[in-house]
Design brief:
Length: about 375
């Protein structure tokens, strides 16, 4: 299997499960495990904090000891093992512990996938957008299947579909990986002085780019955790919720298919500015017009709020960092931007949601607006 096809398959299988976990897991805890919104938010928020610590420390540590190929195999098998525990337990304390364990293992697949992609891009072997679009396709198919599954079998279908998805990940991980991902000593895991956390943090340009990413990705907290519940509160049938959530991913698929063609030469700061403006407009729209039609229209802005911001970071580390620095940078990105910031804003979003559902989305501008200001104030100084 060639590098492009291998990465496409692995993006597809992982994001299929991500399309179940990210938008539906909070709702599943509420509906199937009879938790309140605040209790489910506490579990998911704590899980994201654990996820942040895990991707920040454990993932880079494991990639220094083992190849990316071995790390991904272990993460896939471990994730499947932990998720099976959800079948037998229903108490708050047991769900809390299982979610913490799951959050320590499963989300590490994301930086592992992105690190693999960045290494392959930096060595000139693949087109990132082409393979990443398969991840978006997997996500959108998951939303459709979960929508149909919950319409037929209620929220109980969510767990079983997650288990099936993780079995598929295990299968994909045991397909022949590109040779470069088996290498430890020179290309990936020999962490020299410049590959350390201290050296990355000493680079002011990298810190600024990471901080902007943290703010922009964190602004999705209410959407990821409460989008499903919000649409239920608007009276939308479960099947149609899957279709509505898919609008964002269909747009994302188109974006990643064409992104290398139109955005690869664009300045990183320009991309971040576009993403911040799109994110702010998105959350303000949902607040001002709390109805299904506007929510559907706002889904198209996911291309800007998530897609452009994510591609900007991938471009930055692929252009500015050495291959042996990429796993550490991806671990930091996954920890802070894709986990910790979302965790903290999940607590805020949960509090605001109980005051008013639409207020939960407006609260996310507390993250997107500073991202825009930070970009505008630093882009000339650091020339990114």
């Amino acid at each position: 299997m060639n590098s492009q096809r291998w990465l496409s398959l692995n993006f597809y299988t992982f994001f299929f499960t991500w399309g179940i976990f990210l938008p539906y897991w909070t709702g599943w805890l509420i509906a199937e495990k009879n938790l309140s919104v605040s209790a489910a938010s506490m579990i998911m928020g704590t899980g994201m904090i654990v996820r942040a610590c895990s991707t920040l420390f454990l993932f880079p540590l494991f990639t220094r000891i083992y190849s990316l190929s071995v790390v991904m195999k272990c993460l896939a098998v471990g994730s499947l093992g932990v998720v099976l525990l959800y079948i037998s337990f229903d108490t708050y304390s047991s769900l809390f512990i299982i979610t913490v364990l799951f959050s320590a293992v499963y989300p590490n697949l994301l930086p592992a996938m992105e690190s693999s992609a960045s290494v392959l891009v930096s060595t000139g072997k693949i087109h990132y957008g082409r393979s990443r679009s398969w991840g978006s396709l997997g996500y959108t198919i998951a939303l459709l299947i979960v929508g149909a599954g919950t319409a037929l079998f209620q929220e109980a279908a969510i767990l079983w579909l997650m288990i099936i998805g993780l079995v598929a990940i295990v299968f994909s991980q045991f397909q022949a990986a590109p040779v470069v991902l088996h290498v430890k000593a020179k290309l990936i895991n020999q962490v020299d002085e410049k590959g350390s956390l201290n050296k990355l943090f000493a680079s002011e340009g990298f810190v600024i780019v990471l901080l902007i990413s943290i703010l922009l990705q964190g602004s999705h907290a209410s959407y990821y955790n409460y989008g499903f519940v919000y649409l239920q509160d608007l009276g939308v049938d479960s099947f149609y919720i899957g279709l509505i959530l898919n609008v964002a991913i269909v747009c994302e698929i188109v974006f990643f298919t064409k992104v290398d063609q139109f955005f690869s030469k664009m300045k990183i700061s320009t991309m971040y500015s576009i993403a911040a403006i799109g994110s702010t407009v998105r959350w303000v729209m949902i607040y001002l017009f709390p109805n299904v039609v506007v929510f559907i229209f706002s889904q198209a802005l996911h291309v800007l709020s998530f897609g452009v911001a994510h591609y900007a970071f991938i471009q930055y580390i692929s252009q500015k960092l050495k291959p042996n620095q990429i796993p550490t940078a991806q671990g930091m990105y996954a920890a802070f931007a894709m986990s910790l910031s979302i965790a903290l804003l999940t607590f805020l979003g949960g509090f605001l949601y109980e005051v008013s559902p639409k207020l939960s989305f407006l609260g996310m501008t507390l993250s997107s607006v500073p991202a825009l200001l930070l970009t505008l104030f630093t882009m000339r100084k650091y020339n990114y």
